[in-house]
Amino acid sequence: MNYSSAFIPTLREVPSDAVIASHRLMFRAGLLRKLANGLFTYLPLGLRSFRKVEQIIREEMDAIGALEIKPTVVVPGELWKESGRWDSMGESMLRVKNRLDNDFVVSPTAEEVFTATVRDELSSYRQLPLALYQINTKFRDEIRPRYGVMRGREFVMKDAYSWHADDKSLDDTYQAMGRAYRKIFKRCGLSVIPVKADSGAMGGSGSEEFMVESEIGDNTLILCKKCGYAANVEKAACKNDFTAQTSAEAAKAVAVSVPPIEKIDTPNVKTIEELCAFLKTEPQTFIKTLIYRAVNVELDISSAPGCANIERKKQSPDAPAVYPQAFFAVAIRGDLDVNEVKLASVLKASEVTLADDIDVTRLTNAPVGFAGPVGLSGLPIIIDHTVTGMNDAVTGALAKDLHYKHAAYGRDFEGWLIEDIRTVKAGDLCSQCGGELYTKMGNELGHIFKLGYKYTRSMNVTYLDENGKTQMPAMGCYGIGVDRTLASVIEEHHDEAGIIWPVSVAPYHVIIVPIKYDGAVKETADKLAAELTHNGIEVLLDDRNERPGVKFNDADLTGIPWRVVIGDKALSQNVPQVEIKRRGEKENRMIDLDKSAGELTERIREEIGTMKL
Ligand code: ATP
Ligand code: MG
Hints:
Blueprint: H1 21-28, E1 32-36, E2 39-42, H2 44-63, E3 67-68, E4 74-76, H3 77-83, H4 85-88, E5 94-97, E6 103-106, H5 111-121, E7 130-139, E8 154-164, H6 167-187, E9 193-196, E10 207-213, E11 219-224, E12 230-232, H7 248-254, E13 262-265, H8 272-279, E14 286-297, E15 313-314, E16 321-333, H9 340-347, E17 351-354, H10 357-364, E18 381-384, E19 393-396, E20 402-407, E21 417-419, E22 437-452, H11 454-458, E23 463-464, E24 470-471, E25 474-481, H12 482-492, E26 494-495, E27 498-499, E28 510-514, H13 519-534, E29 539-541, H14 548-558, E30 562-566, H15 568-571, E31 577-582, E32 588-592, H16 593-612
Parallel strand pairs: 3-7, 14-19, 16-18, 18-21, 28-29, 28-30
Antiparallel strand pairs: 1-2, 4-6, 5-6, 7-8, 8-25, 9-10, 10-22, 11-12, 11-22, 13-20, 14-16, 14-17, 15-16, 19-20, 22-25, 23-24, 26-27, 30-31, 31-32
């Protein structure tokens, strides 16, 4: 391809809203243009790399036996009403009506479409397991689209879904997807950190996210220096830094030596800091009690205090019954934060939020700030593990300006549930090896997830097993953002001058820069381009009538991995030579012209091959 006809509008200026390197460089190198907020047009150079990322993903999906299909992007709203997500997706889902006033959705994800497709065709266990995927447009009306295609409104996702006759088969595919993802990111030249992620109601090892380290990432990753444990903070667990009492009875026995619980006046003391100053104590000695409102609670709470009369409802005929709303008190050590994702997962709730002041006052009979587990009735108390190690604590006394001291778990209060709901932070100890944990910010590129029966149940998918009995298949889902992956490649591979593409996803492998595109130089450049092209190497030939400096700058900016400079002087030597340079390396090298095509071809093939291993 000749540069002059390749439509590569490079820019000297940086768009004012571009704060990260990939965003700046995708514009400057002429890969991308903005159509509107969160909507982008890939120009030819950008699209070439985009297609390569897609193709790598496609090859690795095909290699594990997943089958590509192509559903539409606009899908009937009916499907979303069936699954129950018409109501729960909120405003990020774009809904449209056609001329007949029918509801449609512009796919933000496609569990419904794939499940409906399989439901219509699945009859026998012999058809399982089955994994289908698409690489297709998604639309999410993100509140704050930002960082270019990292968080756009329209983007392309590879989304795969699988169906299984048993959990073992689901796990096999889940593991195979995990291996395929590792290969995909390696082939794209990306260093990803696979982390354990929240798997909602599925629990266990049902969810993994593939993160790249990023200052602008919106995920906190918890990592162990010693053993390599890696988890999203939403999921991360840590080793106990306290002596847990395994039962309230045991705790009671330990608390015998603790002075009896005592009410103390704490006038005008509202925050934990004020309380610590007032009592000359540390936050670790305080039991913080927060009141949460949970929505669509699937956990059976019929035996929990105050919950006997809450009505259970079904969102759809085949969905499990849920409590539309329930309140819980959560007690945790004063220096720690409640992890709301863990809490939601314990309650199998679709959402948990702090209760508002009116509810807190109603439920605790006290102003906000004086809740505590001692004497709190009519509300299930969920106790974080840390509290089981507290037998001489300070806590709210359910009345204005009053606290308790010497409160002991087991002796003075108990919980309805005891769970790990603390947010792990840097400095905590690894649950696996006791090593010190540290944090990094990460950006999610991909996610694999065991869904279980959520959709096959709500959308009534069945098959007949070996004995002719009707069964429901288990399901998994697996997504990768193509645009975000591409932008992340640039984040990881660039310098001051521009992009440094890994050969596997570079828009072209070689850029030939003739110092002046005429005469013998032109002839040589054309011939070399033809020879490389014949070898399957993708070549951009800078045929423009520009100064060499301009051409070199654009070659650096667009980041083509190999640059070949052809000039009069080196050509007219006894043995004609050209200069080759690897983008990102300082040194350039003169090589014999007649060896140049062979050497470049070999090195490029080898490099792409190595990335596949
Ligand atoms: P995030 O938390 O970043 O919003 P998500 O968890 O909602 O992502 P998934 O539903 O798991 O995303 O989608 C799978 C993949 O799709 C993500 O890992 C990401 O690579 C990509 N993706 C999601 N939202 C966007 C977006 N707005 N722009 C670009 N890519 C996106
Ligand atoms: Mg996700």
